[in-house]
Amino acid sequence: MRSIISLRFSDLNGVLKEVLISEREFEKASSKGVWFDGSSIEGFARRYESDMMLMPDTTTHYVINGVKTYFCDVYKFGEPFEGDPRTILKKTLKEVEEKDDVTLIAAGELEFYVLRGGEPIDGGSYFDVSPRDKANELKVAIANKLLEAGIEWSSGHHEVGPGQNEIDILHDHGLRIADKTLLTKNIIKLVCESMDFKASFMPKPFYGKAGNGLHIHLSLWSGGENMFYDERDLYKLSSIAKNFIAGVFEHIDGITAIANPTINSYKRLGEFEAPKYVYWGMRNRDALIRIPEFHSKEEARIELRSPDPSSNPYLLFSAVMVAGLDGIRRNLEPPEPIEKDIYEHGIYKELPTLPLTLEKAIDALEGDKLLRKALGLAGENFLNLKRQEWMEYVTRKITDWERERYFDV
C-alpha cells in the first residue's frame, strides 16, 4: 500500500501551506516538481502568471501523524522563484557558505498562549508546575509529537503570562530552524485542538499581560569552529560576534518590519522584558541583544529578543544574516554593553528605540538598500503587503477605545 506525502511551503506572511500527493507521484515530483496556482498564495503572483512548481527538498523530511512531510522550494518557469521566502534564505546562506565558508547555526524560543473559550486556561506564571500549570499534560504531548516528527527540542515551560507557555527548538542549520519553526507552530496548534484547547501566537493577545516572542539564538561557524567565541574576552565573545551585533544594530529599523510584521506586534515591544531600546548586554532581559551565559566554546551565541511569532522565519533569518555580515565586512563596532538598569539610572533617555509602529518600520525597510537588495522580489512583495495592511488598519478599523473616547465629542 502506497503512503501519502505532504509537501509544505510558506507564503510571505509565514503561513504554512500544503499539497498532498501519493508516494508514486512523489518519485516524479522530486525531479519535475508539482504544479500549483501561485496566484492564490499571498504575495506570490498575479492571476495571469499563476503557474508555479513545488520542488521538494529531499535532504530532510519530517513525520506528522504518520505522514512523511517535505519542505519545498517554489519554482517559476523552471527557475527558483525569487518571491519565495525559503528560496531567499536558501540563496543567502548558500552564497555565504560557498564564498566565505561560513554557516549560520540558530535556535528558536516559541512563546504562545493556551486558550479555552478565548481565555487563558490558567493563572500560572513563570516556571509554574501542575496544578497551576494546566498545560502540563499538553506540553508533554507537544514534546512527544515533536520528537515523533523528527524535531529536537531543548526545553518547555510555563511563561510569565497566564496560560502562556514556551517550547524551545534545539539549534540547527539556519534553513532547518526556519523549517522547524513553522512546523513546530503547526504541531502546537494541532495538539492543542486535539485536546480542546487553542494556541495563539499573536504577539500581544491581552492588554496588561506578557506578549509572545520568538527569541532567536545565532552563531556563525567555519571549519567546525564557532566564530563567535573568544576565551580572552570578558563576555567570551569574539570581535566577529561584536561586528555581527553592530551590523544588526545598523539595520535594526528595517529588520523590525520583518521581525515584527503586524500592527499588533508593536503593542508587545517595550513591555514585560520585550525590548524597545537598542542596546546589548548579558544581564538585562529587556536588551535587544542579550548574551546568554554559556560554559563551552560550542555554546557561544547571541540572542536577538525583538522578533515575535508572527514573523516569517525565512525572511527573518535572511535579514539578520545579511545585516550581521555587513557589520563583519565593514568592521563595525557596537556601542558599549549595558549591565545597569536602564530605567533606574535614566540611561534609556539616551538610547535609540525600535520603530514604534509598523508604518515606521516599513519606511525604514524601504530605505534600507542592503536589505532590499538581499530580499529581492520577496522583499518588494512583502513591503506592498504591509503597506496595504497598514492602510487598511488606519482607514477601516474603528476600535472600542476610539468609541469610548470620542463617541460624544
Q: Could you describe the 3D structure shown?
A:
With 409 residues, the chain is an alpha+beta fold. The protein folds into 2 domains: 4-81, Roll (Ubiquitin-like (UB roll)); 90-380, Creatine Kinase, Chain A, domain 2. Helix content is 35%, strand content 22%. The protein has helices at residues 23-32, 85-100, 136-149, 174-194, 239-250, 252-259, 313-329, 358-367, 369-396, 400-406, and strands at residues 4-10, 16-22, 34-37, 51-56, 62-64, 67-76, 79-80, 103-116, 119-120, 153-158, 164-173, 198-200, 214-222, 225-226, 280-281, 289-290, 302-304. Strands 8, 9, 10, 11, 12, 13, 14, 15, 16 and 17 form a 10-stranded mixed sheet that branches. Strand 10 and strand 11 form a beta hairpin. Helix 7 crosses helix 9. The longest helix is centred in the last third of the chain and has 28 residues, at 369-396. The protein is globular. The protein starts with a strand and ends with a helix. The mean pLDDT is 93.
Task: Give a brief description.
This protein has 409 residues and is α+β, with helices and mostly antiparallel strands. The protein folds into 2 domains: 4-81, Ubiquitin-like (UB roll); 90-380, Glutamine synthetase/guanido kinase, catalytic domain (Creatine Kinase, Chain A, domain 2). It contains 10 helices and 17 strands.
* Number of self-contained structural domains: 2
Number of strands: 17
Chain-averaged pLDDT = 93
CATH superfamily of the largest domain: Glutamine synthetase/guanido kinase, catalytic domain
